[in-house]
Structures are given as structure tokens and as C-alpha cells.
Amino acid sequence: MEKLRFGLVLIVLCLSTSLVKGGDPILAFEWKVTYGTISPLGVPQQVILINDKFPGPIINGTSNNNIVVNVFNQLDEPFLFTWNGIQQRKNSWQEGTLGTNCPIPPGSNFTYHFQVKDQIGSFFYYPTTALHRAAGGYGGISVHSRALIPIPFDINPADEFFVLVSDWYTKSHTQLRKFLDSGRSMGRPDGIIINGKGGKGDGKDEPMFFMTPGNTYRYRFCNVGMKDSINVRIQGHTMKLVEMEGSHVVQNMYDSLDIHLGQCVSVLVTADKDPKDYLLVASTRFTKELHTATSIIRYTNGNGPASPELPKAPIGWSWSLNQFRSFRWNLTASAARPNPQGSYHYGQINITRTIKLVNTAGTVDGKLRYAINGVSHVNPTTPMKLAEYYGVEDKIFKYDLMKDEYEPPVGKAEEKITLAPNVVKVTYRNFVEIIFENHEKSVQSFHLAGYSFFAVAIEPGKWTPEKRKNYNLLDAVSRNTIQVYPNSWAAIMTTLDNAGLWNLRSNSVERQYLGQQLYFSALSPKRDLKDEYNMPDNDVLCGIIKDMPLPKPYSV
Fold this sequence. Notes:
The chain is built from 5 helices and 33 strands. By secondary structure, it is mainly beta. The strands form 7 sheets. Strands 9, 10, 12, 14, 15, 16 and 18 form a 7-stranded mixed beta sheet that branches. A 6-stranded mixed beta sheet has the order 22-21-26-31-28-29. Strands 11-20-19-13-17 form a 5-stranded mixed beta sheet, covered by helices on one side. Keywords: Glycoprotein, Signal. Residues 1-22 form the signal peptide. It comes from Solanum bulbocastanum.
């Protein structure tokens, strides 16, 4: 019966794509989300499996494909996925955060339906409910260029591999959540895993990747971790950086790459060394205790184990900052559309609004909280997106509790943190500048859903308007995640041309869970399908709108 229902869903979707999704091909998946027991770091523990896999299945699509994922929640708790980096054009209904969606109840299912509209690149999905991300439930998303778009590679890769690197805790996600709910930190992770495995590096691990001598391969790296930046490198090989979070980049060579929380990159690696085993190495950055994991790359017909001597990781964050400055947008390459990336001259657009965001840590009633501009976000029982659609937002939250300018207390003065839904109204289609200022001692990483932005600068110190003279206004990489080093600032620029409710969040699981996130509400002046899709018929309803009559839908 369930298979019949799923088939009927697909038929309906196929009939409706000409109206909503442009008639592009559909990729359909059925996922069963369950618990299972495995030992990523040698300790048996409960993890979240998708179709009995950890990590979950890779979504391997092409620009403009429609992705249909029927998720069966077989856990004992409500559950949601978000699709990190997929812009969900006109469709924040599919974003899968607690601000946009009611979670899927236990024993129930929900079908996500979204289009990877005008996007290419490397992304990933993960759970946003409770602290499920600490139990896995993540996987890769690769979006390829359409056949008519030339790919700016000298050599077509013989194959490609997804490499999901993550820090990992041996404590259960329920125990870690209890720590946070009681006002404590999660503490330090216990190790690193690569595609769900710790990798002992003793030569006894099974090979994870295979390369044929003379061929070139694409490796898609994503840091899907919870707390730490991670450096990746391959024994004896250099990596040619070709793509970063949906943008083709200038193809520089690197011995190693820092990948901060939530970030994804693609590199090309040529099998041009002696045919034997080599180690892919991932290790933590900016931590007192260094954690390292390895996986084996085996040359086909190779003879000999990998060297036990691992290539060393860089030291300090100034090296990492200099690497960031070496990243450049490939202005002549085409991405999802035939026109070159550089035909969009972002540096010539007038800024209409500057929003400066300061991340802080503090306590409320003796419990640890994290804030942005003095507001620590709390998810209401009715998602804010649904409240807006039903016209009852005034009963759920207040707009603009957070101001565009903020100076945290200096010295020993304690910051007053407000606990509330943090929703900022922005003007649809305005071009904005967002400044991230990090006064803390650890590297931060932030993701903006619904958009890509130009990462125009990262510098030590505090931001002032005079710093704009140092912006890269020509070939900054268009991406969706930005790191901010200790006592430093970062500047991004973007056009808010995607109507909906969009999450800006810390990529640290602890910080995100304890309030370091906000939502931008970019409402179209008209309830028009040209700007935003209607709430899906199958949307899960909860909170005060559950039994309310449906509002008048958007029209063309």
C-alpha cells in the first residue's frame, strides 16, 4: 500500500512540475530513518541510519533536477532534515529547520520536494531536530552541471568520491543533549571520523578509495562535524581546488586544506605516484588536543602499504587566513548557467543595509546560552514560517528584537541575553552587507540558508566602515558558509532575492542548539507565485495553526 501511495505521489508531482518546477527531471528516493548500533571510534553506540547506512545515501543529481525524498521517521522522536547549501528557491517550505517546518512525528512520513535550481556543487544534508546531528543521519549531495555547460577541468575525472569528515563524541546524542539542557557544555569531541569510520592508521583498515595509475579523480570534502575545523591532506599528493560550495574557483594547488564547520570543497587528485597505498589524513585544527583519522587510498594493482609517517598539519590560524585569501572565484567559468560567473558584478551594486552580527556566550538563570547581538534564539512550538503564512505571527514572535548594530559589554560586565525567537525583517531583493564580529577566543563558522553570498574579507580586529577599502570586490568566492577567526571580523555581501524565511546559524551544534542563530524574513510585497510557492498540501501542521482554516493561497 505504501509503495502504491509513493507511486501516486510521483505521478502527481510529474503532472505539477510544469507549473511549479519547470518540467525538469525528477530523482525520487525513499528513506527509512532508524537507530542502529555501530562503533565509529571503537565504542559501540547508537547512531542514526538511513536505509541502514551511516553515512546516509549520496544524492547525486544535476542542476535543475527535482529531488523527491520520502522520509519515514522510525525513531522515537520527531525528526527533520535540512539540505545544507541547497538554496530552495522560492521554497523555504522545504528548508527543514524548526523555524520553517513542523517535525515529522515518530512512526510517520513526509515527502520533501525541492529543486536544485541554478546550482552546481558539493553540499550535504543532516538532522536539525533535538541533538540528532550528534548521532549521524547525514550524507552528501553532489549537483553536476548540465551537459550543455562546459566544465572548467583540463581532464574529466575518472570517478569521484565523497569524503565526509567530522569530529565525533562517544557519548550518546541523548546524553549530550542532557548536558546542554542542564546548562553545561558538551565538552570536547573524542575523535575524528571519515565517512563514519575512525581509521586506526595501522595498515589494517580496509581501503576506502581506489585509484587507477594515470587517472584523475574528484574528491568532494565536507566538514559535517559539530565543533572543530578540520585539515585534510593526502599522503604524497597535491590537490587542485576546483569548486567551493557551488562555485568554480581559480584552480590553485594545495598540499592541505582547512575545512571549517559546514564547509564543502572539491579537489582533483591525479594518481601519478608509485602504485601502492596512501593515507588520506584528517585532523583537528585550533585544538589543545590533536585528533587525527586516516583512510586508505589504494592504487589498483598496487604493491605495498602506506607509509606510517603522516604529513603534518599546519599550525595557527594566520596560515588558515592566508589560505582563505588565496581562494578566488573563476570569473570565466560557467556554473549552472551558460553565462560566465564573472558576468555578475557584485562589487558595483550599492549596499542598502549593513547588519553587524556579534557572537557572544553567557548565562541566563545560571545556564549556558549563546547569542547574536544579545538575543539567544528559542524555537516556538509554531514554526515562524507557518505563523507568517497564517497571519498569526504577532501571537508567536516579535520582529527585530535584534538590532543592526551591537557592542557587547566590556570588561567583567555581564551581557544581558534575551531569550526569544530571533526574526529580522529584511527588504526583498535588497543588496545587503553582513559583518560577523568574533570577540571570542575560538574560530566561529556561520551558514546562511536560501542564498549564496560573496565572502569579501576576513581580517583581525574590529570592523569599521573604513575597512571596506580592503574588500575584494572583483573575484570573492560566492558561497554559503564563512569562518570568523578569534578577535577578527568577516564581511559578506548578498542580494536578498529569495522570498521566504531563512536561517542564519552557527555551524557549531552546541552554539546553534543554545541559541546562536536567527531568521531573516524576506517577504514579497505581493502574495505571488512568481516570488514564492504556496505551503505544500502535505505540510505537517502543529502549534496554534494546526486546526485553523487554510489562508488564501498565493496566485500568479
